[in-house]
Each structure stands twice: as C-alpha cells, then as structure tokens.
Amino acid sequence: MFRTTCGSGWLLPPAPERRRRHPGPKAPAEPVYQALSAVNIAPATARITAADLIVIHRDQRMYEWESYAHAPMR
Q: What is the pTM of this model?
C-alpha cells in the first residue's frame, strides 16, 4: 500500500548496488605446476612473536580492519 501510495517510491531508500565478482581469467594450472615443481629450495621458517585478532568488514566497498585483541607469544 505504501509503495502504491507514493507512486514511484521516491521516499524509499535506493536499491543497493550489485557487486560484481572479480575472479581472474580461467587458465590451465599445468604450466604453473611444472614451474614450481622445478624449484628446489628449503622451506621458509619464521618466528612468530604475537598474534592479533582483527575485525574485518567491507562497509566502504573495500576491505578494512581494526585490531580487536593482541596476544604476545612466548
């Protein structure tokens, strides 16, 4: 009833924009697999001294985050 009364619906908020996915083009994985198989290097190591718990969102059409908690590690 409300939409009919308002006619075009000018009092209603605009419809949200449709988001388009952005995957890369399809390509065969074999060339990448062959190239990586030819590499012979030692595994990388890293010393982790802390971990952060973050809150992530996409409110402004891009990923944004803020730190929620910090945990030092021994």
A: 0.41
Residue with tokens 């730190």: 67
Q: Name beta bridge partners: 65.
A: 56
Collect all residues with Cβ–Cβ distance below 8 Å to 57 and sequence separation of at least 6: 63, 64, 65
As a whole number of angstroms, the distance between CA 57 and CA 63 comes to 6
- Could you write out the three-class secondary structure of 8-41? CCCCCCCCCCCCCCCCCCCCCCHHHHHHHHCCCC
Q: Does residue 72 surpass a pLDDT of 80?
A: yes
Report residue 36 as tokens: 């990586």
Partners of 53 in beta bridges: 69
Q: For position 53, what pLDDT does the model report?
A: 96
